[in-house]
Amino acid sequence: MLYTPTASRIILAAKENGLRGADDLLITAIIHVLNKARLERGYFTLVPIPSSKQSQRRRGRRFIVDLTKTISQTTGIGISDCLQVSRQVSDQSGLTKAQRISNMHGAFSLKSGVILRGDAILIDDVVTTGATLREAARALNSQGFLAFRSVSAVTACVSQPLR
């Protein structure tokens, strides 16, 4: 991972070890950014980036969805758990930017029966190249029209860009 060793340890402690204190640090970081944005409640929807079924089983939870639920409860911003992983993807940790974009292409879809309107804020733990966030935005707007007027993202950590 290309972010600070401290950030890496916190992300992994939350994501892979389920440590509540690490979860709280990530939640606090994301809430801080949302509060700085001074968003109108009721106008925006938080959309968590989904994990694969395999990752959910390994972790014993839906990591980003669970964090986003807490963020929603704390901030009063609504949540829509509307994305799903629609095909298997490779672990991105060793991939270049171009490989990540290719790897994520078509990886997400909307859950059946979802109808979206308004502005979305994608929630994830880390952004490296933006490939995951771009794919999530594509899936949100896959209904044949612009479901969300704008799609933004908030992550707990930003890594150094890959080339």
Tags for this entry?
6 helices, alpha/beta, globular, 163 residues, Rossmann fold, 41% helix
How many discrete domains? 1
Strand order across the biggest sheet?
A: 2-1-5-6
Distance between the termini: 14 Å
The profile of the biggest β sheet is: 4 strands, parallel
Low-confidence stretches: none
Order of helices and strands: HHEHHEEHEEHE
Shape by Cα distribution: globular
What do the pLDDT scores average to?
A: 85
- Percentage of β-strand residues: 15-25%
CATH first level? Alpha Beta
- Return the CATH topology: Rossmann fold
Report the helical percentage: 40-55%
Radius of gyration (Å): 15 Å
Number of helices: 6
Briefly note the structural class of the backbone: alpha/beta
Q: How many β-strand stretches?
A: 6
CATH architecture: 3-Layer(aba) Sandwich
